Amino acid sequence: MKMFDPHVHMTSRTTDDYAAMAAAGIRAVIEPSFWLGQPRTHVGSFEDYFLSLLGWERFRASQFGIRHFCTMALNPKEANNADIAQGVIDLLPRYLEKDGVVAVGEIGFDEMSEAEEGYFRQQVELARTFELPLLVHTPHRDKKRGTEFTISLIREMGFPEERVLIDHNNEETLPVVLETKCWAGHTIYPHTKMDEQRMAALVKKYGPDRILVNSSADWGVSDVLKVPKTVAVMREQGIAEAAIEKIVWDNPVEFFSQSGRLDLARTKIDQSQLFEGNSVLRGQSPQIET
Amino acid sequence: MRDPKSLGQSLLDIASRHMPAEVARFVAQGVPQPGQQLQRGLFFGYFAGVGRRTRELDFKPTAAERGELEALGIIAPEAFTLGTLSRVALLALGCSALEPRDHASLLKDAYGKGDNGERVAVLRSLILLPDPRRFLDIAAEACRTHVQDVFEAIACDNPYPEHYFPDASFNQLVIKALFTDVSLARMRGLKARKNPELYRMARDYEAERRAASRTVSSDLAYVAHDLENEP
Lengths: 290, 231
Prior knowledge:
The structure holds 2 protein chains of 2 kinds.
Chain A: E1 3-5, H1 15-24, E2 26-32, H2 43-54, H3 56-62, E3 67-72, H4 85-96, E4 101-108, H5 114-129, E5 134-137, H6 143-156, E6 164-166, H7 174-178, E7 183-187, H8 196-206, E8 211-214, H9 226-236, H10 241-256
Parallel strand pairs in A: 1-2, 2-3, 3-4, 4-5, 5-6, 6-7, 7-8
Helix pairs in contact in A: 2-4, 4-5, 8-9
Chain B: H1 4-16, H2 21-29, H3 40-54, H4 63-71, H5 82-96, H6 103-112, H7 116-125, H8 136-142, H9 148-155, H10 160-164, H11 167-179, H12 196-211, H13 218-229
Helix pairs in contact in B: 1-5, 2-3, 3-5, 5-7, 6-7, 7-9, 11-12, 12-13
């Protein structure tokens, strides 16, 4: 089965991870821009990060037969950094136009501060201007209120709900999201957020419509194979193959195709290629598909 | 509230008693010289170097020293290592060499480019310096950290949040403490700052955990229910 991990921070991962993902059936990934585990101290650090998402990281993925797309935004946590936040917003128009950018995100809330709300609103307007969908992070703490507040802002601003993916849902927030026309993402983590068994139970209860799953794997304890592992558990639980495929391929494709930039045409792996003179290989024989 | 110079000197005197002479000399070299402009690069070098030189040293203040520390505003001396104490002393003395309008910038620089130990010292210093309200953005930033020691330096045995955090920030701090298994017994002012929004957030978190078939800690249950019902 072809799979899509619509939220994974590959910049933090190794080439072994790419190889394992490809072997497990993952054909496409979306890498939302996010924070780096510690606050950045310069706007320029964001710019180089954005450039790496569009350049080197997309190339790395291609070397393993995986299509790499990204979303760009000022993330919720760093929206609270008054020294850099507006500077990052000012960068975005240039980067939101680039090929491979398929949404504005992750925007959303961390501690639901006034600064977070202000930058949320600015970035919703950017999504409207650049005709991109929105990827919205829901907070770890006070998640249900954060989800409800997100929806109220989207409605107040008249942004089309069907162009909004609200991420990191759980048992408490999924019914809230499904009452709207927004899409609902779920992060399968080793210990927090959501696990495979609970996810399968939610699919049994609510069905596959507008539901996505992702690994959100990053620099922390996380697992790039959580999408295929969730597929395996859903199968064990007797969920129909068509429903599973809808969740792990059709839904992310349908949602992010709203950007008009989701080019999923597979190119052949050619590890003899270089990106700005660099190869992912370290003396190995390049794999070249014919 | 003491002026930064006497605060810094008093803390330095206590710290120096617990370290070998060569370490005390090193720390003293970081003290800005009277009448000279503070050279931040040099100052932060000593501020950083304190960590490596004090890491292996115990800090067991005498009863008299505990009394001195408490009189200086340190309510929980046991939360201070020798390195933290020395660095807080340096920060206070660094501030004393600057105009008050530049204090926040010095602390922000120390926090923003500090390692975890340096950040802990900054957070422990905030409540001790004049007009702590000036440092609210540093304290709020610390609540966003994923580093447990840094988070605990603002959340635990530190009166700063109780006195200066708005309700929204205080509530976030409590809920994050519950998320990260920080004992609420180490948080100051929970009863004084209790508010309906905090109960609502705690009850939502409790519901979320129950829906995920997870345990509910006694601290979470306390905030969600007992704290609200306390007379």
